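Collaboration report, partner site 2.

Our partner group contributed sequences for two proteins of shared interest, and the home lab folded both. The records are reproduced in the order in which they were received, starting with the first partner submission.
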Amino acid sequence: MAVVALLAGASAWADEAVTAFSSGTVGRLPAAPWRAARLPKVPHETRYGLVEDAGAVVLQADANASMSGLVHPLRIDPRTRPILEWRWKVSDVPARANFGTRQGDDFAARVYVLFDYDVTKLPLFARIKLKLARALYGEAVPAAGLCYVWDAKAPVGTTGWSPYTDRLRMIVVDSGTADAGRWKSVRRNVVEDFRAAFGEEPPPLSGLAVATDTDNTGSRLTAWYGDLRFVVAP
């Protein structure tokens, strides 16, 4: 389950700034509080490291039938800085990926935004479902989160719940191979996206994560991530 062990520990809040990949050292992992996170039942990990690309230090993810990610805990009130900006690039997409299915739940690139949601606000049935999901997959199953993805085929703007939990909203922001090998810039209003997904105002953020996963489809590809940052609305 791509979201579970990957997001464990994201509630250990850091300061409000997201540590920039560009401030790191080529050949190493990003500086703390970024940390590697793997899935215990996935035999192969995606390999991450900082590289230089066009004069900038960026994060490179090499996936080969693999899944793991990097997690960054933080504490931000999204109403003060609702805009999340980043850029990314992919070499390819998982050819057999299928948005919204467990068998095809692979993405060339993902960015997760996690919220410190009060589970007592959930209806009883939703709390029971979340409790069961956490019993099966671990306590890190989010009570509320957004996942921005570069999908293989689904059109940009496609949204849907994760096939593992209806507390994680998947949002396609790039798709296909037409822009493979090119840097794409993404700008999302996480407050608006949270409202659209959950029908209420967002709580504080508790973490970010990036992940490139190809374990379900056995694909091999590389993705690159530039700095992520939260900024005030224009």
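Second partner submission, folded after the first:
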Amino acid sequence: MLKLNIESRDRKTDARAGWFETDHGKVETPIFMPVGTQGTVKAVNQNILEEEIKAQIVLSNTYHLYLRPGTEILESAGGLHKFMNWNKPILTDSGGYQIFSLSELRKLKSDGVEFRSHLDGSKHFFTPEKVIQIQRSIGSDIMMVLDECAPYPCDYDYAKKSVELTSNWAVLNKEAFVNSKPLYDHKQYQLGIIQGSIYKDLREKSVSDLLKLDFDSYAIGGLAVGEPIDQMYELIDFTTDLIPDERPRYLMGVGRPENILESIALGIDMFDCVMPTRNARNANLFTWSGTLSMRNAKYKDDFSPPDVKCNCYTCRNFSRAYLRHLFIAEEILALELASIHNLFFYLQLVTDARKHIIDGDFLEWKNKTVKEISIKN
């Protein structure tokens, strides 16, 4: 199993600080994983990612890497770690969510999902077994099972059938994992994904089905897809209590900084989201005093750092006025500097959360921080 070594628990919430280890290194939790969908975190090179941003683990995507460069290239390169020159842990999503988002271009079947490539319209078929095979070729440290992410809203019957499909696929995923071997000289772990939409009894059934298969750990999927935020927190709180305490709990695709802090308080250990880099490319910065739109004319002669409380490369060296100029002039450097800042902010946020869990004042710090970072400037 992927064991979470718990160092400290918050007395007033379910937050915990810990660590787990893979053959590519130790990961301290709570942790945010920058999203490198196609083997790259957009606009940020690997040296900056490791040395400046202090990323401990990144996420890549099975669906995208299967389409390009393809498993033959990845195997010839010796796996994704060598291909992208990244020596720390990698987690790969199964591609289930990406296929779900194709909507009209996919067809669910009992043994897998048929879909058309978003690149050229070519037809493909993912089975649970094939997804494991692809992730063996990628060589990720942590691989996710193939699941179906139910849309929101969906009625109870659809969600029930979706859980049954995901549970049936989970059996095939686990069998394929057990009956295959890593292609490279490091261990791979496999995580099951809990589904069930907004229905607690279905979430409970999903957990029960997955626990019988004894995955290395478990992720909560199918949230942050449109449901009210309070309902999302309620479901996170409900589901985390069902996951074994000694396993890292991964909340998939969430979210804004305040969502991450509230979810840490509910017992979540691992996060990923495209938001920091996507927002950065759209000139939106997350700061310790709220969000900034760097296209705003009020920053044209503001020579202060983007975030006076931030010590990232961008904030140490450049002003709001300069970043605004780069965005208005449509310079590529704008995307890089904004992405560096937002990722640094996210990693600093979970690092500070970890520190305050250990120090024993997490709840007070969390409540104060959520108010400050939620301001829209």
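Feedback sent to the partner group on the second submission included the following. The chain has 15 helices and 16 strands. The chain has two domains: 5-273, 280-373.
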